[in-house]
Specification:
Blueprint lengths: L4 E6 L10 H8 L6 H13 L8 H7 L4 E7 L2 E10 L3 E2 L2 E2 L1 H21 L12 H14 L11 E5 L6 H16 L3 E4 L8 H12 L7 E5 L15 E4 L3 H11 L2 E4 L4 H14 L11 E5 L4 H14 L2 H4 L3 E4 L2 H22 L13 H4 L6 H5 L9 H20 L1 H10 L2 E5 L1 H16 L14 E5 L3
Parallel strand pairs: 6-7, 6-10, 7-8, 8-9, 10-11, 11-12, 13-14
Antiparallel strand pairs: 1-3, 2-3, 4-5
Helix pairs in contact: 2-4, 5-8, 6-7, 6-12, 9-15, 10-17, 15-16
């Protein structure tokens, strides 16, 4: 099947108008540690906005001839684009929001390579917890996200890309109520429950005549092809890996709302619960609300049962479930953020970055979901509960990779299903939860045939 494509030359909009010769050369060099390929693939994902597709490999196959080259000029740079998805253009002119996202890709890919590491090393100690947090801060600051503020108001909204129309409409209603209260939105930047809250908040901000509303989108190269950024996002950040992306959410956000989703949403939930269960974070205000329309109540009760069975009742106390009541969600979030403001004022922590939250190194270390790494995950209850949550997060991250990420899909094709080994008391509830995601169509976009990429293997101690 042929897909309509467009060739164009575009000038960057925003801060990234010039590159050093070394940076431009690295983006043009096929052998430069994969930087050129990362930039190309992320750029293609941004340009594919609006096309329903959650398979990174399929996107690359559709637009095999796609190219993006850096053209150095005395006045700055241009991007020479060939074979781009036509949906990114209106009458031959690129949509401005997509053009801005292209610049964000360029900015963050270059920054990650030259400041965080690569073959030339980097300025941050990524072997230490403090060094990784410092890197996350500088990624956000370089992107212009870190700004002095008087009042915390950033709500992180998590949820799936493959959700029902009713769930999507509900996420818009919640976003609308958040926006009416002057709250801004941060999501994973893709479609579904990532787009809905932004869309609702946009209307509310317009009604309240709120200028300079912020719609943050956080992504990473492995997932961006499956979750192309929606154009409502006006501040896009591409983190180098999922772990830094997750840390970016909890450092930049002030309140958290979770909508229905699949395995990726479960990964996010486990990540934040594992952090909050650490004794050093006891008593830290962290508004966390699970919500959905009436027909999603069973979904959240199942999530709640899984958390209670595997992580225990202390984990269940860290969130509240509000069903089919967008106003109650917005009020609870607003009240929670007021507590966050009071706590940070009392402790001297910044409003714009949650420095005092303790995030252990095992939550920060990049996890590569190979078959060997998935098999040897430590999934038993003879360990601190926050460490178990970290390992469960890795297991769910591996399933995400096998479902939608190019590298994971290829690994499954070459070596078969990922095997998740662990204590039967954990594997049983996990298998039930994952099976429910499959049954409810939450693993892939509606209409797609889903073939599990994993096998749960109970192993007695």
């Amino acid at each position: 099947m042929e897909y309509e494509v467009v060739d164009a030359q575009v000038s960057p909009i925003g801060r990234m108008e010039v590159l050093s010769r070394a940076e431009a050369a690295a983006l043009s060099d096929h052998g430069s540690g994969g930087l050129r390929e990362v930039f190309r693939n992320c750029a293609l994902a941004v340009l594919n906005c609006g096309n329903e597709l959650d398979d990174g490999r399929e996107l690359l196959a559709r637009y095999r001839s796609f190219k993006v080259e850096i053209v150095q000029r005395s006045r700055g740079i241009k991007l020479d684009i060939q074979g781009a998805p036509a949906s990114a253009f209106v009458d031959g002119v690129m949509i401005r929001g997509i053009q801005e996202h292209l610049v964000s890709v360029l900015r963050d890919v270059v920054y990650a390579r030259h400041e965080l590491g690569g073959c030339d090393g980097g300025r941050f100690d990524l072997a230490s917890s403090a060094g990784i947090t410092d890197a996350v801060f500088h990624i956000l600051r370089n992107a212009g996200v870190v700004q002095p503020i008087d009042t915390p108001n950033m709500v992180v909204c998590w949820g799936g890309h493959s959700i029902s129309r009713e769930e999507y409409d509900y996420s818009k209603r919640v976003g609308y109520q958040l926006g009416l209260r002057g709250l801004d939105i941060c999501t994973g930047c893709g479609p579904g429950a990532m787009k809905g809250p932004m869309k609702g908040a946009t209307i509310a901000h317009a009604k309240q005549r709120l200028a300079n509303a912020r719609y943050l989108g956080f992504t990473e190269p492995g997932i961006i092809a499956a979750e192309s950024p929606n154009p409502i996002v006006n501040e896009l950040v591409i983190f180098p890996d999922v772990e830094k992306r997750l840390e970016g959410f909890v450092r930049a956000g002030h309140g958290f709302v979770v909508f229905p989703g699949g395995v990726g949403t479960a990964e996010e939930i486990l990540y934040v619960l594992g952090i909050l269960l650490h004794p050093d974070n006891a008593g830290t205000p962290f508004p966390l609300v699970f919500t959905g329309p009436a027909n999603s109540e069973a979904y959240f009760r199942q999530i709640d049962d899984f958390i209670g069975t595997v992580l225990g009742p202390e984990a269940q106390k860290l969130y509240q479930i509000i069903i089919d009541d967008p106003i109650a969600v917005a009020r609870a979030t607003q009240q929670g953020i007021a507590a966050v403001r009071a706590h940070r004022k009392e402790t001297g922590d910044a409003y714009y970055f949650n420095w005092l939250l303790r995030i252990q190194h095992d939550f920060q270390q990049p996890f590569r979901p190979t078959h060997a790494n998935m098999r040897k995950l430590s999934l038993h209850k003879q360990q601190p509960v926050h460490r178990l949550a970290a390992n469960l997060r890795r297991a769910f991250s591996g399933v995400v990779a096998g479902n939608v990420k190019n590298e994971g899909i290829l690994a499954i094709e070459q070596h078969g299903l990922f095997e998740i080994h662990g204590d039967p008391a954990i594997m049983g509830p996990m298998d039930v939860l994952l099976a429910s995601f499959v049954e409810q169509g939450r693993m892939k976009l509606p209409g797609s045939d889903y073939h599990p990429c994993y096998k749960v293997v109970p192993v007695s101690a």
